[in-house]
Predict the structure.
Amino acid sequence: MAKRRRAKSSGSVRKLPSGLWQARIYGAGGARTALGTFQLKADADKALTLALADQARGQYVDPVRGRVLFEEYAWSWLEHRSTLRPRTRELYESLLKNHIVSTLGDREISAISPSVVRQWHGRLVAADRPGADTVAKCYRLLRTILGTAVTDELIAKNPCVLKGAGIENSPERPVASIS
């Protein structure tokens, strides 16, 4: 008897020995990924339905892919930026080391939510150091790195959504007069 081929986009819901319900989806390569466990079968069915809809629209992001640590991804991101000028690379290394990775580095990329970004940004703003311009640069760098993570399909959307957080507000420098 021939082996049945699985439909390109499919999944299943099953009851675990613990009494919880698990939703699973099959990716394009046939690999099965658990979407999570749920108290109610209806919740598992809903998670599966949403994942299948995302998959049909081409917007599904495998949750396993977002389990990479931010620190690992950020340094890899910087390493692959061959067109950066030396001074820009130095700046990015400093911002990552001193203000971004030190706080967010041990988190999985998929665990960085808008509220996590808001708390991180709030702590930087409230501290005496760094200054406001450096905080804006940190935010822009974080937003850019996580934007690349969206492109790499590690996360579905960029959690950096704070309005105005990446804008530097330096006062105008006085112009020297001739007299």
